[in-house]
Design goal:
Blueprint lengths: L1 H23 L4 H6 L8 H9 L3 H7 L5 H10 L1 H4 L1 H24 L14 H12 L1
Helix pairs in contact: 3-4, 5-7
């Protein structure tokens, strides 16, 4: 029962983070701070497109769009599949996300995942403080 409560709390925290990011216009907090897209960049748009049955758009925004929903189901039943299998599945998912992230980051035609540190709040603050001092 405690694990289910923890899962609900975690899901509520993720939803709250998405809501705050959307309301403030920040979007991705990682990209806002660093100027570099994260490995999940495009996932919200992909899931929204998938929910609207725009499958092609969903895979354009993030090619692993089906992995998080499937992983959530696997996570919910992780006790039934065993720790070893669950760890292997988690590792495969992490490897897939890392691989897709690197490919999208170096692909010049990909305009979803970008890396521009001058666009991050850290560099902007440094420049602002440099101008004051």
């Amino acid at each position: 029962m405690k694990k289910r409560i923890d899962l609900v709390i975690f899901a509520a925290a993720v939803i709250a983070l998405y809501a705050v990011s959307h309301i403030t216009g920040i979007g991705c907090p990682i990209k806002f701070v660093t100027g570099i897209s994260c490995g999940g960049c495009g996932m919200t748009r992909a899931l929204t497109a998938l929910a609207s049955l725009r499958v092609r758009d969903a895979f354009y925004y993030h090619p692993l769009v089906l992995v998080p929903p499937v992983y959530c189901v696997i996570y919910a039943f992780r006790n039934k599949i065993g720790d070893r299998r669950f760890k292997i599945i988690t590792g495969v998912c992490a490897f897939l996300f890392a691989g897709v992230y690197v490919i999208r980051l170096i692909d010049p035609s990909d305009n979803i995942v970008t890396a521009d540190i001058t666009d991050g709040i850290i560099i902007k603050l440094i420049k602002y403080l440099g101008g004051i001092i």
